[in-house]
């Protein structure tokens, strides 16, 4: 065959492949929500700003509406943008869209645990975990006492800075880390403990790495990028180290387990794994009876317990500590807000008494500021991916089973009708005309539905008590003019 013949054959072959791709694309997407036409192999990646994906989603929503389809590589993604669409997916279709979109860097968990589990055990693991956490007072008096016990340690660590500039990352991070560690392991770390500092480093690194453009690309092109060097390798190594730490603590608990006196979350999950008969009265007895229904499930093993503990340790530490740290930066930029908070704290609590949750009823401004910090921080703007568990008709479209869904939380938290001037920090977003706290159904910082954050009650309590305690004893001072403070997320 001549060179011309080879060229013609290649052109014909390429044209045939292109036509086949176009026909398949049009046929498979005829019942899907609208969206930009994808390119072969890469899909719509080039239509996203990888450094600001939420901004890209907002721009595409203006063009295609609140429900639109993207292709990230071969991965079909349906994006929900705006309060109504997000609410419908998370609450009205909570069963059909309750799956978890895959995050390849977390595959070391192998469909175990709570957060990234999309296997057959996630419902039972989540259900039993919530039951245990409720027994430990999640969001109730038990956790209030834990947080109040931690406050003096936090204040002492802050006093040691003697008013000098310092990085609050580890100091502020130790407080929520100790609260969740007490629930999971009955463990308390010193604020300079090397293990605690190492764990916080892993938490903070993972939170940052999960939001980077490279991890977005890796998650959608794992077969191409998995063997290349990159930050995905560091994330996978971090995840393995955290799971190994959790597994070591769980094994220690297994050796010293006393079924008549469970000490913490780990003990109770181990009792479920070992199918230990319940020998204590009260709530635990009722819990054991309830869990009998699920003992036939394959999820109760050391690996699953370790993954569950690691998930709760990560989520219960890093999200609260990041919100505290960023909230302090926001308050430094807005000294007028801090001044009002000092006035309210002095009036309601005074200088000596440890804050309590009942103080919230008399502190509407602090309550509003804490909510506004969470809204403004916008910690998970694109949420964690969901997945369709079955073929589902949604707004006249057919969402096939296995489709990834992204219910964007930032589109709800920054709704300009519910929150006028949403890009500005304004505690008034959560205050009525009389200065009383005003609830908003648009406040979905913890997501909603079947996959809502299991630690929402604990996180809300921690943020109110820790912010109040810090401002009860300290004033914030910036090294630069407040107007020069940059609040752009890294």
Automatic annotation (TrEMBL):
- Give the protein's cofactors: heme
Compartments (UniProt record): Endoplasmic reticulum membrane; Microsome membrane; Mitochondrion inner membrane
Q: Which GO terms describe its molecular function?
A: arachidonate epoxygenase activity; heme binding; Hsp70 protein binding; Hsp90 protein binding; iron ion binding; oxidoreductase activity, acting on paired donors, with incorporation or reduction of molecular oxygen, reduced flavin or flavoprotein as one donor, and incorporation of one atom of oxygen
Tell me which Gene Ontology terms the entry assigns under biological process: epoxygenase P450 pathway; xenobiotic metabolic process
Q: A Gene Ontology CC term for this entry?
A: endoplasmic reticulum membrane
| This protein's name | Cytochrome P450 2E1
InterPro entries (UniProt xref) = Cyt_P450, Cyt_P450_CS, Cyt_P450_E_grp-I, Cyt_P450_E_grp-I_CYP2E-like, Cyt_P450_sf, Cytochrome_P450_fam2
Which amino acid positions bind heme, per UniProt? 453
Any idea of its EC number? 1.14.13.n7, 1.14.14.1
